[in-house]
Design goal:
This protein has 158 residues and is an alpha+beta fold. It is built from six helices and four strands; from the N terminus they run ααββααββαα. The structure holds protoporphyrin IX containing FE.
Amino acid sequence: MHMHRNRHHCTTPRDPHRHQRHEHDKAVFHALLDRHQAIERTLEKRPDGIRSLTRSDDPEVVALLHDHVPSMHERLLQGFALRRWDPLYVAIFEYADAIDMDIRLLPDGVEVTETSQDPSVVPLLHAHGEAVDAFVRAGHIAASQPAPFPRPTQPQEA
Ligand code: HEM
């Protein structure tokens, strides 16, 4: 399905609804970073992307995950970027059209499958999965630095 997008409109800071949405999203991911110790996560890297399970025993944290992940999916679809100072996030929003994201909300968390048919996009998905791992491990300390950016794919050996 082709989505009509207008990146300029979507990112203009003067749109009050966008602004409110961004403020909400920011409050949610800050709360997740605050409570990173209450989060458990497993990441499986696959040849075509990732599968992750992110969960918590704390229902408030589960509610934050249920808010954050669908909202980030929505922002990918709309090209409504964030963390624009972090090259990995810039790249993910740049290639958003080549990313498929499937989300299952579970009673204690969220299961995500992200794939790309484009082999050059898969390393971005792996790197982002690891970036979320780092947020879960180290909270704000991890989020205050740019995420490690994957090296360009090496040419295949004959
Ligand atoms: C402890 C903190 C955080 C948790 C637990 C969390 C959790 C997740 C999960 C489960 C996903 C789905 C992809 C995956 O499983 O790898 C995701 C995607 C995403 N998150 Fe977060 N996140 C956190 C912090 C942040 C922060 C600080 C930002 C931005 C400032 C952010 C922005 C995004 C974006 C843009 C996506 C969609 C991109 C993609 O999945 O390719 N997240 N997050």
